[in-house]
Amino acid sequence: MSRSFTGCTRCKARRQKCDEQRPKCGRCQTAGVQCKYAMQLQWGGRAFSRSRFGACVDTGNMQRLEYSPGEFIYTTKAGERKGKPGPELSLIQSVDPFSSLSSEQKALLHHFINDASQATACHSGMQQDICRMLVPMALQTPSLLYATTALSAIHLQALQNPTGSIKSAPDIARSMALSLEHFRKELQNPSAHGSEALVATARTLCLAEIHSGAIHPNSWRAHIEGARALMKATDSGENATGSANGFRRYLDRWYWSIVSLTALTGNGPPIGESADPGSADLAGRNDSPDYLDDYWGFTVNLAAVFRQIGAAAWRNTEAAKNAQGFVEGEIDSNVEDEAALLEMSVRQLMDRDASSQPSLYPGVAEGLTAESVQQLALCNEAFQHSALIQINRRLRREPATSAIIQQSVQRILECTAQIGPSAGLSPWVLLTTPLFIAGCEARGKDRDTVRSLLSSLHDTIHIPNVLQTLKFLEQYWANQLSEDEDWSHFLDRMNFDFIPY
Fold first, then answer.
1. Structural domain of residue 230, as residue ranges?
2. What is the pTM of this model?
3. Are 219 and 266 in contact (CB under 8 A)?
4. CA–CA separation, 347 vs 326, rounded Å?
5. Are 273 and 229 in contact (CB under 8 A)?
6. Which of 95, 146, 241, 354 lies 20 to 30 Å from 199, alpha-carbon distance?
7. Percent helix, strand and coil across the chain, each rounded to 5?
8. Cα Rg for the chain, rounded, in angstroms?
9. Higher confidence at residue 471 or residue 494?
10. Same structural domain for residues 235 and 382?
11. Distance in angstroms (rounded) separating the CA atoms of residues 109 and 132
């Protein structure tokens, strides 16, 4: 075989032919090693290190000056020039990538980078990745910039006025309106900014709506549906999950987390084709390992169970509405079969995780402490018991007082207490949903525990929706028609569209 000139780094170093498959070539796949592609710059046919310019750098006479992320120039080091001393050469002024922004926008972006981005990150590596991917793109995409500043302003407003109305604040309402205005214009010419920037805008607008505690029907669902349409258009004719870059994979992970959690907790129909995943469904690929996603706090296969629970509950509700002679509380045999299969799936996941730690995505575990890995495992267990509760409440219609449901409530509260409260970055920020599901079925002193934990969570991450979650639980506890009325039926009766996220 001839050696490769455009193949991966390993094949070129070994002078082997590379099939140049991405993200991992065949040789690296077989060897089970990391596969990297890198461009080697050459001057005059020589490698950089052998060129005259490269030799200058190697001798220490040059220094690399990075003036913008990923962009740099080489300059002579001060005090090391030979010959007659001359005037010092320096940049007249530093290049400021934020120079086009107003002082208010700069302040909000600064708050986002240093504070607000922590609300959805359970470790520092994730927070840094989110900022590195999102902020540069926001500087080039007006709709994303305004959506990001709105999300930051919501967090800042919650810090300053934790009990007041958030979304109606003038600066937040203005940023949201401007983001939507630019978003509509950019959608008319999506190639100008790229599909990833537009999906990122839909994602950020959705988070802004949810974080603000919005309860208006379709206020946040519309952005999820928009993101789905953009992703589907991008994936047309290709399998994007095999070739997507880091930012697109992050957007895929966000999309499937919100779809899965909506199916688990929300009223209304499943979003998109939850029961029949498309090509971009990272959480529905049976040939993929069952990773514990550090962005979600639960495993890939458990996410698929969430969507199946939501789809089965919706089909059951629609069938009950349309059936003649339907008896309230009666369970269809098909629903019972589905419930049994879903419970078996969850129990198998729990048995597997009890004997070994769940696997994290490649490269993630190395950046985490043993305590963080253990907390992620506890978070995943809390979500597993959340699934068991919903299977028994929404599908089997077991009363909340049944032993099997109360056992799961107790375990969720135990897992949560072992993780937090935590003032630093930890899986503590991911626990709104399990606490809410446990709270819906909690009795007696357990309700006080839920109140305390949700209040502590709100005081830690300052997301108004956490406080809204507690307010809705109080309403549910006070206004539940009977023990048989679960949360999804209560939402439907109250005409709320809410997600505890």
1. 101-243
2. 0.77
3. no
4. 31
5. no
6. 95
7. 60, 5, 35
8. 26
9. 471
10. no
11. 12
pLDDT tens-digit readout, 140-154: 999 999 999 999 999
Instruction: Show Cβ contacts of residue 82 under 8 Å, excluding neighbours closer than 6 positions.
Output: none
Half-sphere exposure (Cβ direction) of 469: Cα atoms closer than 13 Å = 31
Are residue 57 and residue 178 in the same domain, yes or no? no
H and E: helices and strands count for the chain: 19, 6
Q: Is residue 339 part of a domain?
A: yes
d(CA 329, CA 340): 18
Q: Averaged over 429-437, what is the pLDDT?
A: 96
Rounded CA separation 220/262 (Å): 11
* Domain finish residue from 243, 267, 283: 243
Q: Tell me the C-alpha distance between 273 and 258, whole Å.
A: 13
494 located within any domain: yes
Token pair for 328: 């309230």
Contact 473, 487 (CB under 8 A): no
35-67 pLDDT, tens digit per residue, is 886 654 333 444 445 555 555 555 555 565 554
* Cα 309 to Cα 387: distance, rounded to the nearest angstrom: 8
Helix/strand/coil (H/E/C) assignment for every residue in 94-115: CCCCCCCCCHHHHHHHHHHHHC
Task: Name which of 295, 299, 290, 243 is nearest 129 in CA terms.
Answer: 295
Alpha-carbon torsion 285, 210, 236, 244, what sign? negative
